[in-house]
Automatic annotation (TrEMBL), chains A, B:
The entry's keywords: DNA-binding, Transcription, Transcription regulation
Keyword Lyase found: no
A Pfam family hit: GntR
Name of the protein described by the UniProt record: GntR family transcriptional regulator
Organism: Streptomyces longisporoflavus
Amino acid sequence: MPDPKPKGEKADGSAVPLTRADRARTVASVLRRQVMRGAFFGGVLPDERALIAEFGTSRNTVREALGLLRDEGLVERRRGVGTVVVGRAYEHPLGALSGLAEVLQRHGEVVNEVREARVIRPPLTVSRRLALPDGSKAVYLERLRRVDGVPLSLDCTYLIPEVGEPLLAHAAGTPRTLENHDVFDLIETATGTPLGSAEVSVHATVPDPATCAVLEMPEGCALLAVERLTFLADGRPADLEFLHLRGDRLTLHATLDRAAGHTEPAGSSLL
Amino acid sequence: MPDPKPKGEKADGSAVPLTRADRARTVASVLRRQVMRGAFFGGVLPDERALIAEFGTSRNTVREALGLLRDEGLVERRRGVGTVVVGRAYEHPLGALSGLAEVLQRHGEVVNEVREARVIRPPLTVSRRLALPDGSKAVYLERLRRVDGVPLSLDCTYLIPEVGEPLLAHAAGTPRTLENHDVFDLIETATGTPLGSAEVSVHATVPDPATCAVLEMPEGCALLAVERLTFLADGRPADLEFLHLRGDRLTLHATLDRAAGHTEPAGSSLL
């Protein structure tokens, strides 16, 4: 149980002044979104004086906020230049059930490095999510997605045999198919069946050193761990994916509707 | 630039066996989702032998996978019991434009600890997102959301004056209004204007120690940093929020539609 009387509140229920760390977090939240949205022309943040004026806060708070973004690997200080954005950030429209490549190919050359592509016996919990009989086979596909050479996500995909096997056969006959295509395209091309909907869960986690190394991420950054269960248009599950997206390079974006939330059951109101 | 020939691939283009760290990540991905979905009856994970059978992998891989989940603060080993889930995880339906409390109140007593609630002069970038004239005032509301005493999210909200000022007036006349209500309820009640849609961006980040302390999170866990710009039904922006959701306690969940992704502009296809 927490303290009976929360810290931020006086006896009469009114709020008390926040600490500098609280103010720095608030400033960092706003700047972080600007960095991720590519809002800073030329990739250089406004100088300290401008940030102090913009946020109506102290120099120390601004410095602390910039320190938070540096610790997250989003910006760095460059002598004679100021605080600059490190690397490039991309927005992934979560709404469109598009593969990431469909989005990223506008930004650079997308290549999926194939790490594994074969028939396996999936864990029971995976076969159940895919509505496969216990003991059934599945196709496992693991790929590292790069844009202009920079790894953005590590995608681990379990496909039902009716989808995965034609997909492997198609890939065997067509060089670089797995490298150059989104999983959604692959499924629709290999099976001739259109996709219907997907259930997506998004979780934030700190990656282990091996995952950092594969994604070439600086340590101290976070991952978006996305589970995506995709259905064919006829309602059968097609594949279950575990996507590991670099938190310092990718933001998920969606537009939601209040009305839908009131009328549809939770989780199905995006349709 | 990466190596010209990716590590996971042989000269003939076929994949090579993955490392144990790769297999552990795959196992951990599946188990992580089960933990977050509350799939383990009584909060106890299957024992090592069962996991080895389920995942068709070695004891060392299973141990490494469980170690990853321990490092993330999701499970711990208890002598004589096994590996148990730490704390409670919640799914937040991202699709429904519902406040988190609307979802969480099914699970326990939701209290929003008010840390700040006052008229401020917002940063320029915030006023522009809210379509306010430069130099305009706004209302800033900062609350720590707890379920049954456990902090789940720190919510920093900038409201346009036409919404925020009636909201503060309403709260002043009605004790514990801010403590007991979602921001969406507050807005609709205070202004009598229904909400329309929201633009949501989701980012993963590692919190600084001060934020960990406020959220009572173990260090080494990640945050879901959500920016949400909500519009009134008439299309005016109502508020801009920066939500800091505990990554070890909350998962965002949504159902998406492939068809919409093809016909609607990116980011607006959830409607």
